[in-house]
Design goal:
This is Anti-sigma factor antagonist. This protein is an alpha/beta fold. Helices cover 50% and strands 17% of the residues. A three-stranded parallel β-sheet has the order 1-2-3. Helix 2 links the parallel strand 1 (19-24) and strand 2.
Length: 86
């Protein structure tokens, strides 16, 4: 909840430019509903802006909520930034 607004601002500003936007969540230790909501909003924005939103996640703290909510199917999830960009 604390960092979700900063994540939202970064995503909204970055996705407005189009192109590919990679969210590197390798250092994230908790992903709750506020963070998931921001990612869903960003996915919609990316679609509207013809941008690509890619998520880098390896920690179970991130992958599990994505899988449990079905959002792992919505996002392009990679295990490294290099993999996300290729």
């Amino acid at each position: 909840m604390v960092s979700a607004p900063a994540l939202r601002d970064a995503l909204v500003n970055g996705l407005g430019d189009g192109g590919t936007f990679v969210v590197d969540m390798t250092g994230v230790t908790f992903l709750g509903s506020a963070g998931l909501a921001v990612l869903v909003e960003a996915a919609r924005l990316a679609q509207q802006s013809n941008a690509a939103l890619k998520v880098v996640a390896t920690a179970r703290a991130v992958t599990r909520p994505l899988e449990a909510t079905g959002l792992g199917e919505v996002f392009s999830v990679s295990d490294s930034v290099d993999a996300a960009l290729s």
